């Protein structure tokens, strides 16, 4: 395969890439959009090549861009050289990244993961904010957690905003999707601590008796965990707050819990 020059906004492949900003299109195709050479190189470092690589005609031909082009072609993917106007349309920005890529989604089921393969895992129930989810995935990666389990109706982990917030960690961390009933049915496989945060808990997050593998379960900032999921937690902990704020940002609280449970 060779590099294809494209100058028309009506090109079908360009239209298909632009459509990946919509969740229904991402779910229908099993693909998602990632922006910037760094995140593309992060994917390549994990052995994951783009399905489609798009770069601007005026892009600096950095050695890393050549690596991305060669890897995409070697994997039988498409490489498109496009105009700045097309990049603006694809990214929906006036100052777009000069390199973007389309990747296949990698989603696991609960039965695909082995709880004992890592010391710490994270489960999120009904998380709504893409920035929070992306930051949590990035933090889980930094701490060496096994993956992030999404319970119920959560924000799309493959939206452009979420992927951007992961800073490339979306390619390194297992992303698991499940319903509440599936999570509850799988509870028996988690032989370590299943941990929830609760203001009335007696255990401090820094000194709680965590047992491995530890599953940290977090709910929304507004309402926390649903009663059904909260009841599955065999260890409740609290993060002390001494100021006026009565709650923490979800990604901050989850990051604190990940590092406390990891002993880092």
Explained architecture:
Helix 6 runs parallel beside helix 10. This protein is elongated. 33% of the residues lie in helices and 21% in strands. It has 264 residues and is of the alpha/beta class. The protein folds into two domains: 4-104, 60s Ribosomal Protein L30, Chain: A (2-Layer Sandwich), CATH 3.30.1330; 110-262, Alpha/beta knot (3-Layer(aba) Sandwich), CATH 3.40.1280. 40% of the residues are buried.
Throw out a few tags for this protein.
264 residues, elongated, Alpha/beta knot, 60s Ribosomal Protein L30, Chain: A, alpha/beta
- Biggest sheet layout: 7 strands, parallel
Per DSSP E runs of 2 or more residues, the count of β-strands stands at 12
**Principal-axes shape call:** elongated
Q: Give the rounded overall mean pLDDT.
A: 94
Order of helices and strands: EHHEHEHEHEEHEHEHEEEHEH
Give me the CATH superfamily of the largest domain.
Answer: SPOUT methyltransferase, trefoil knot domain
Give the N-to-C terminal Cα separation: 47 Å
Helix content: 25-40%
Quickly give the CATH architecture of the largest domain: 3-Layer(aba) Sandwich
Q: Unreliable runs, pLDDT <50, ≥5 residues?
A: none
Give the number of helices. 10
SSE class? alpha/beta
């Amino acid at each position: 395969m060779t590099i294809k020059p494209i100058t028309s906004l009506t090109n079908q492949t360009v239209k298909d890439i632009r459509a990946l900003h919509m969740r229904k299109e991402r779910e229908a195709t099993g693909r998602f959009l990632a922006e910037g050479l760094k995140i593309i190189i992060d994917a390549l470092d994990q052995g994951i090549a783009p399905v489609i690589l798009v770069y601007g005609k005026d892009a600096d031909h950095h050695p890393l861009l050549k690596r991305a082009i060669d890897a995409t072609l070697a994997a039988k993917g498409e490489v498109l050289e496009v105009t700045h106007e097309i990049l603006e349309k694809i990214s929906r920005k006036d100052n777009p990244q000069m390199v973007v890529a389309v990747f296949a989604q990698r989603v696991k089921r609960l039965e695909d993961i082995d709880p004992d393969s890592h010391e710490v895992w994270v489960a999120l129930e009904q998380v709504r904010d893409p920035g929070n989810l992306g930051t949590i995935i990035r933090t889980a990666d930094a701490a060496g957690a096994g993956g992030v389990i999404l319970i119920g109706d959560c924000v799309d982990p493959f939206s452009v905003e979420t992927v951007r917030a992961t800073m490339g960690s979306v390619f390194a961390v297992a992303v698991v999707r499940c319903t509440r009933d599936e999570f509850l049915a799988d509870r028996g496989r988690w032989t370590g601590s299943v941990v929830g945060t609760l203001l009335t808990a007696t255990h401090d997050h820094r000194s709680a008796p965590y047992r491995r593998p530890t599953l940290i379960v977090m709910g929304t900032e507004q309402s926390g965990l649903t009663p059904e999921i909260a009841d599955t937690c065999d260890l409740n902990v609290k993060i002390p707050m001494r100021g006026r704020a009565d709650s923490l940002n979800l990604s901050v609280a989850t990051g604190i819990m990940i590092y406390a449970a990891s002993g880092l």
